[in-house]
Design brief:
Length: 284
């Protein structure tokens, strides 16, 4: 017999929509959620990749569907939730995992911030911010009708303390955090009879396809100066693993997190709380 605590953390049977599911982080998270009984809708503009991942999950005994869609297109997202409802009968959770950065939105190595490409900044802001707001609008309509729902957004350490050279991503993620706090209140104003929870995670430094070249040299083993700086300012002394995001997400989407609203869970090995004063290895 399951204990009360196990029941509180259970996600079995919950229908979860995950945007950005073709990426390393949210692809792994989707697999973990499915392995624990959730029915997962994998949403991404890379349709072939999420459909292939859905087949893998199904082959492993889970329930999943891959849906090609764009988080920047309202009709596309509306079509996605229609497919989810037809497939699974409804939706309980939206995880806004779509996001990322672009080279043109970073300060170039041989230039300065005056060389930033503003159209590239616009694209980064659109993907991270609008790509969170628009799916939330579409899914909130369903959650309001269903009387309940959970939204989990994705922020970043760069939202809390802007990282050098990446203004577009840092600014956009800061906007996501502000939006999360705003929406957490607004859903109670707009839908007072519905139990809609809105929270976010802020991952620390995890190695992904997008940032590997920033953290490791071409040999894939030696840290870059930036990578060394991150490790030197992380009390845990290492980068995070995708699986380490799963527990916090389960907390936010399960009944165990029923009284959490508008919060940011920093999953960063202590990076956010270290002042940088005094070396972490001074007692070694």
């Amino acid at each position: 017999m399951a204990s009360k605590i196990e029941e509180m953390f259970s996600i079995s049977g919950k229908v979860v929509a995950v945007t950005g599911a073709a990426g390393v982080l949210y692809g792994a998270i989707s697999q973990a959620l499915a392995a624990n009984g959730a029915k997962v809708a994998l949403l991404d503009i890379m349709g072939d990749k999420v459909k292939s991942l859905a087949e893998e999950i199904t082959a492993d005994g889970g329930e999943a569907v891959g849906i090609e869609c764009s988080v920047l297109d309202a009709d596309s997202m509306a079509g996605a939730i229609d497919t989810i409802i037809k497939t699974f009968g409804g939706c309980d959770v939206l995880i806004n995992g779509a996001g990322g950065n672009r080279k043109g939105a970073c300060v170039p190595p041989d230039g300065n911030f005056t060389d930033l490409e503003l159209d590239e900044l616009d694209k980064v802001f659109a993907l991270n911010y609008k790509g969170t707001v628009l799916p939330s609008q579409i899914f909130c309509k369903h959650f309001a009708e269903a009387g309940k729902g959970v939204i989990i957004n994705t922020s970043s350490m760069s939202a809390r303390a802007p990282l050098t050279n990446v203004p577009g991503y840092s600014n956009a993620k800061a906007a996501v955090t502000n939006y999360t706090q705003w929406l957490a209140v607004q859903v109670k104003v707009d839908f007072p009879d519905a139990d809609i929870r809105v929270n976010e995670i802020a991952p620390g430094f995890l190695v992904t396809t997008q940032n590997r070249h920033l953290l490791y040299e071409s040999d894939g083993k030696t840290l870059t100066p930036r990578g060394e700086s991150i490790i030197a300012n992380t009390p845990f002394g290492r980068f995070g693993e995708p699986d380490e995001l799963v527990g916090p997400i389960v907390l936010l989407m399960s009944e165990a997190g029923s009284f959490l609203q508008g919060i940011t869970l920093c999953i960063d090995g202590g990076f956010d709380i270290y002042s940088g004063v005094g070396p972490l290895d001074e007692k070694k």
